[in-house]
């Protein structure tokens, strides 16, 4: 058995594929919005596993759900269904625009399913020529070859050979550009209501309404990627509910399992029927363990007290970040919704988001970046006021360290 002293960052370089470059810190336990590393050093977690740990670490409701289901049934093939999957599908369809659910393991897989469904539906609607997918620059939809191609960041998709065809990208929040690009050949438009990896950029109300209208005009499907914005992150169960604009397909993952891998594609019954038996599948999608945990997540998150609390905590973050900025003048704006918050660096600190991330870790705070110019915060939805206050105090120390060189 390898000892803890040798389970270190150096071992990563010896045994892992080098597509990641993790920090030297190795967390070993967590509780709520706090994490402790191998040296028992405490960190406030403003990262939340990139918007995954929506109820923090080791939430008792989730621990109990996993333990209870673990004693009953772990896995079945999709030759059979199971009770936790049926309950999760009913909860999601009862709580959203959708009438049908498909389960997978990750946001990328949910998005892959959404894109494949859109193409099958369009084939039946308009034939092989109705294949165009329109997406947006700076978007991120996953790392499968199809989803990374639809995502609008060539750095992630270049270098793997010929890409899937029929995908066009335009600028986000530019309705005239979409109007010029869309036609009756368009199969689907895919977008994040708030771009996450692209820099925490919310869609404007005018834009999202205009996208819906143009999709209706050209008989194209509107796909909302809510992998990052979903499950209470913005203060509604899903971000589309803020806008009052319904998609045809919605994808959800990350926070859906609170840290346990699970994802879903949600859609209407008349669209869902295009995925006939055998056209798509997933070995682990909808397995009892994952669905039991997801049911527990929704039982806590989809409540008035948690969702209304997200909006209140948003104000605490904005006020705290603006107070820090008044002292150090490092941000040009603070944007986002709910507990998806981005602090945009001004010209003096352009390109240095990672410096703030590193300094934060040294100050005992875990945060994120969204590109080179945005420091991102996606903490637990039930983080306490005291933890927010302490985390912002630690972030101020990090800002001071960077600002003062």
From TrEMBL:
The modification N6-(pyridoxal phosphate)lysine is found at residue 254. It is found in: Cytoplasm. Its cofactor is pyridoxal 5'-phosphate. Its main location: cytoplasm. One of its GO terms (biological process) is L-arginine biosynthetic process. N(2)-acetyl-L-ornithine binds at residues 143, 282. It catalyses: N(2)-acetyl-L-ornithine + 2-oxoglutarate = N-acetyl-L-glutamate 5-semialdehyde + L-glutamate. One of its GO terms (cellular component) is cytoplasm. CDD domains: OAT_like. Pathway: Amino-acid biosynthesis; L-arginine biosynthesis; N(2)-acetyl-L-ornithine from L-glutamate: step 4/4. May also have succinyldiaminopimelate aminotransferase activity, thus carrying out the corresponding step in lysine biosynthesis. This is Acetylornithine aminotransferase. The gene is argD.
